Amino acid sequence: MAATARDLAATVTRLEAEVAALHAALTAMTAERDRYRHLYEQLREAYAKLEHGLRGQQAERLLPDDRQLTLGLLETLLGEAAARAARAAQPVPGHARRPPRRRAAGRCPRSCRA
Fold this sequence. Notes:
The chain is mainly α. The chain has one domain (2-88). It is built from three helices and no strands. The chain has helices at residues 2-55, 64-78, 80-88. Helix 2 crosses helix 3 (80-88). The longest helix is centred in the first third of the chain and has 54 residues, at 2-55. The radius of gyration is 32 Å and the shape is elongated. The model has no long low-confidence stretch (mean pLDDT 77).
């Protein structure tokens, strides 16, 4: 019976050590999760600002230096590999819009002719 009590005490001690280790791991993972959540929120804010500046109805006009700063921030947040992939993307050349075709005065499309 004495051997059983010693075995139980050793098992309890081992389980307490495992619980302490798991608690420390949980605390570390929680802190890491919070850090990544903060970085994710910063990235979403930077993306929203960049998208608003590029595609907004009344687009915010960013100076080239500000765009470069924003891309630098994205590079920092996404890491070096994603930044290299973003730099490798080719810019799309601009194009002029053609004016609409004008109809001759007094003429209407075929569908309205009687």
